[in-house]
């Protein structure tokens, strides 16, 4: 299919979103004309190798829903110093069987504090200390050879306050001023009442007084992150242009950062609004036309029920796809709650809620990432299990932070005693490796780490390892002495990669378990939406994976299985799940 044929076929879907979004402002003919011009121009520039990739992917639309689709997420600087340095470390990713690489903080960020790279000052340039966009393009070619797809963050809710658009707005350019949202004090106060806070402790409020802008600029996150005004169709065109240009550099996937926040509506909490979904559908349709190899991934850290719509929906006009991949944040949170309370109840509920994906879509599953574990997203799920979910969640979080004799060494994030927000910490520190005093405690920590890795892998998603977790890297307390980072607790779990630890005992054990789990999944043939197996035992989670049945014991005590079988992980016949153990029963379905 040529690009023109795709344009003809997909135009109604794309145009429908533009009409829904901007039709109320007048006719969308000129916007539609500008959009088509943009698609044609960027597609004309698309390199031959990427057009070939487009064709291959169109022939194999489920290419990323496969048992061997495993991911890795890392900071470039913390992993290898520079983009060129990273190119020299692709072997480590290959040794883990990685097929998908998410690079954090790659694009040029604001000077000084940049929220770990999420305050972007130029979407089309690489952070100068890391290298150049040409080096990234070269890296993508190297990665493609290794069958690894590069994912970068598209922080499309906000730019840095020193982005060219923001600078022009501050200088009084009316075109760019309309890229942002400026309210007077009374309006800002009125809106604030309906809005939750993302960083209540370090960046309270959703507005920042900026005298050059003559009012209060909408800043959901840090004051230097200015929310884009998606009611302005020029913002849509500008971000689409960015996405197409990056895709033409070899970026194969975009992590749509903070996607839930895009559209603002008076009187609402401004999260997950229908228009936000129309924007994602429009971006998807546009990429389907001009760069169809490209994947979209939704980062929507919101209550479980609001998450599946980011895959897309049929609202009477046929299925309208949004993202190929969506973070299963609730499953991640549930895994940690389950560890803390030695109960499989919450992950069982989330697995049950995670089924029924559309074709050509999958969860991105993970145990840890660069952010805190935000507890609130599973409150509703827990309420169905327990009439006092807040108390129960707080108990689990505090346990993982070391309260009540807990082995976890997490730290509260943006929580202030009364309000429970999130917890920080590396996977190993949260799972008890940091506090372990002897071989027995270390063994227990290794098992808990493998257990959470098994949850991400056996549940069928694109299971992504966060940098250093495969080595068991512990919390990095050094950020507290760095004046530029001390206020931001998430640096606790953003340690520098310790390449010397690669041959150490922890890395051998944890990495070995991880590779074994990945091999088991490949052998099982499992991928895609998870299916729950009832076990009858409160601590035991059962998940079907391909031909296999996988049992995860979140308790310290062993649990007898209802039937025995061959465990792929040990090769032995097994009828019991030991404390914090994983049993992967071959061909048992
Ligand atoms: C995302 O996160 C990023 O992952 C964070 O690193 C950024 O700080 C943030 O966006 C702003 O760009 O709101 O819905 O720790 O879970 O901020 C997604 C809180 C988000 C994050 C939250 C998040």
Automatic annotation (TrEMBL):
<dbReference type="Pfam" id="PF00128">
    <property type="entry name" value="Alpha-amylase"/>
</dbReference>
<protein>
    <submittedName>
        <fullName>Alpha-amylase</fullName>
    </submittedName>
</protein>
<dbReference type="InterPro" id="IPR006047">
    <property type="entry name" value="GH13_cat_dom"/>
</dbReference>
<feature type="domain" description="Glycosyl hydrolase family 13 catalytic">
    <location>
        <begin position="73"/>
        <end position="508"/>
    </location>
</feature>
<dbReference type="InterPro" id="IPR017853">
    <property type="entry name" value="GH"/>
</dbReference>
<dbReference type="InterPro" id="IPR045857">
    <property type="entry name" value="O16G_dom_2"/>
</dbReference>
